[in-house]
Amino acid sequence: MKVIRSLILLLSLVVQGAFALAAQNREVTGEGFDSLDEPLAGVTVMEAGTTNGCMTDLDGKFSLKVSEGTVTLNFSYVGFTPQSVKVEPGQTGLRIVMKEDAVMLEETVVIGYGTQKKVNLTGAVASVSSKDLENRVAHSVTDMLQGSVAGLNITTSSGVPGQEAAINVRGTTSINATSPLVLIDGVEGSLDRVNPNDVESISVIKDASAAAVYGARAAFGVILVTTKAGDEKDGKATVRYSGRYGWEEPTTSTDYETRGYWSIYTVNLFQRTTNGSNLVNYTDYDMQQLLARVNDRTEHPDRPWVVEDVRGGRRQWVYYGNNDWWHQLYKDKHPTTQHNVSFSGGTKDVKYFLSGSMDYRKGILRANPDVFRKYNIRSKIDFRINKYATMSNNTSFFSSQYDFQGDGSIENTLQYSARHAYPIYPTQNPDGTWLYATPYMSYKVANGRHIFTEAGTHRNKNRRTEFINTTRLVITPIKQLSITGDFTYRFYQSRNTSRSQPFYYREYPEAELGVYDTGAGENRLDETANTRNFFSYNVYATYTDTFNEKHNVTATVGYNYETLKIKNLGVAAGNLSSTNLDDLDLATSAASNGNYSGGQNEYSLSGIFGRINYDYESRYLFELSGRYDG
């Protein structure tokens, strides 16, 4: 019986295969041409509703077996409008004329010191428009770009709000820094200091030929960001607002071990295997008490988590808890709020764009939350002086502030608070004093980081400010020639303040308060400042013309000069007379180390650059570009 069933199944499969072959036994042939009647190779031909398809060969010809009856063939090719053609039974010898996609052919991308039609690009340049990014919810342009451009690698190594990500184009190609050159409206800057809602387009230049006009600085690629500008609206203004409220959560699990018994059992097991002794000196009786409480998620009246006992003739606390240190110190949900508003418009002679944004984020700390605030303002004004000249001004302002508790950085708090913070220990003793040292181990509980964050004594404030102003004049003496000159001033400053103070703890119930007043517990104030002043001048001319309606030529030549001055300053002082105010004037002595630091440097860059583009009927392309710096 089983044999008969197998034969029937095999027969049915053969019949189905025969029907499938019969359903695709008609051959359709044809040719694909462009509007100039030239054969098109590489046109994709697909039978609608199936995965059956082919491509045209070098002569533009194709042959495809299709189903019986009337079918629809879809034709597509980059730079041309897709077409659908119905093929009747018996019809063959198709002649398909692909029409050029006018929108795509006219689409331009920003390149070094100019723009170029996308269809005429010879270098590896990827373009991302504002429409591609508008539905991406992110705090920075860097976050929005992640996954948007092939070959653009963005790595986030820190979750600290406002921390810049590492960027490289086409992978790491050197043991040194391989970050691309980032230009915002032609000025070197940072993607994280740009309001994502201000971005009009982003061009990523990947190869050396396309980046040659920027010289050696562009060895690892160039990212060109163009911000939005005003447009002609007959004097009417366009107002846009967007707001968002939400929260962020860790992508990894925070369900750590919170049972005191298994925590101590595990660390002692490993310690005995390595050193032959326990890390936490608990007796067998103590382990039995921990085991009796192993399933207590909250403290049971009959099984308290802290017991007072006399050992070695001295009263001491014995800890039997199942404390969740992570969720006691940190939060899994971090609220975030964003607001953006812009005004744009203009007339034939004057156009304007004004925008402002605010980004507010609460961080990971629970008792004294760390808070990040970021503000962006931008103003762009373009006005026509006469029919030969236009002038524009682009001003942007950025400010951010990050307030948090800890020993200099939030990473320090996360790293050290995980050390020896076993579930058996609470953060505070029954008398309300801080738990730091215990008679059961030589290590300090959580390295005292729980005291930093919950007591609010270790205050940090990181501030960044940036102001950029670019004024540009464009003169067009004749239709084919434009001469551009611009001047840019950029001011950037980062200022960091870090306060630390002694903290007090108790090890035994009857003991005096202990104090930790060295290292991270020193009473001191540190302030650092990094100031940068940048000046840039550009003058370049672009000539564009067409000869005999076939030969298209564009030539650009120019001069670039820029200088950057950097000044660093650091001061530290000790024994401040106030525990609540953080000011160097309150210091009564020098700090234990690092009382002052400083430094300054300056560089200047001067170079000439040029580029020539030629194309014959947008078919045959030639580009030559270069730069010389001195």
Show the helix and strand layout.
Blueprint lengths: L1 H21 L3 E8 L10 E4 L5 E3 L5 E6 L4 E6 L6 E5 L6 E4 L4 H5 L1 E4 L2 E4 L7 E5 H4 L7 H5 L6 E4 L10 E4 L11 E4 L2 E2 L10 E7 L2 H4 L10 E6 L9 E12 L11 H16 L8 H9 L13 E6 L2 E6 L5 H5 L4 E13 L3 E13 L8 E16 L2 E17 L4 H8 L31 H7 L3 E20 L2 E20 L2 E3 L8 E3 L7 E24 L3 E26 L10 E4 L5 E21 L3 E10 L1
Parallel strand pairs: 1-7, 13-16
Antiparallel strand pairs: 1-4, 2-3, 2-5, 5-6, 8-9, 10-15, 11-12, 13-14, 15-16, 17-20, 18-19, 20-21, 21-22, 22-23, 23-24, 24-25, 25-28, 26-27, 28-29, 29-30, 29-31, 31-32
Helix pairs in contact: 6-7, 9-10
Tell me briefly what this model is.
The protein is mainly beta and about 625 residues long.
What features would you describe in this structure?
- This protein is mainly β and 630 residues long.
- 13% of the residues lie in helices and 46% in strands.
- It is built from ten helices and 32 strands.
- The strands form eight sheets. Strands 17, 20, 21, 22, 23, 24, 25, 28, 29, 30, 31 and 32 form a twelve-stranded antiparallel beta sheet that branches. The protein has a five-stranded mixed beta sheet with strand order 10-15-16-13-14. The protein has a four-stranded antiparallel beta sheet with strand order 3-2-5-6, with no helix packed on it.
- A hairpin with a 2-residue loop joins strand 8 and strand 9.
Helix fraction bin: 10-25%
Mean pLDDT: 88
Radius of gyration: 34 Å
Distance between the termini: 91 Å
Total helices: the number is: 10
